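On clarity, I found the account of how folds are encoded harder to follow than it need be. What matters is that the chain and its backbone geometry are given together, residue for residue. For the editor and my fellow referees, an illustration may be useful. For illustration, here is how one protein appears when written out as sequence plus structure tokens:

___
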Amino acid sequence: QSESKLTVDVEEYVEKFKLGLMDIVHRWCLGEKFVDIITKPPTQIFEGSVIRAMRRLEELVVQMASVCKVIGNPTLEAKFTQASTMMKRDIVFAASLYL
């Protein structure tokens, strides 16, 4: 902030982050069933939006693991790989929802 001579209101910046999916992704990674996550407690987010967001997040996590490999940080690479493995399961990553 001081190097770029830009003024940033930290509170306003932090408020821009939307954390609505964080709990859903965390519960998914802990192994909960998708139907339980969506219905207990009921969420205001469409199922398709949750699936799309989790797929995009998993793609980002895989890319982050690749970056860690390139920069030579195997510890962080292993953590990202583990996160990807925990996310990539069941209905969210099915090739088609019309089975």
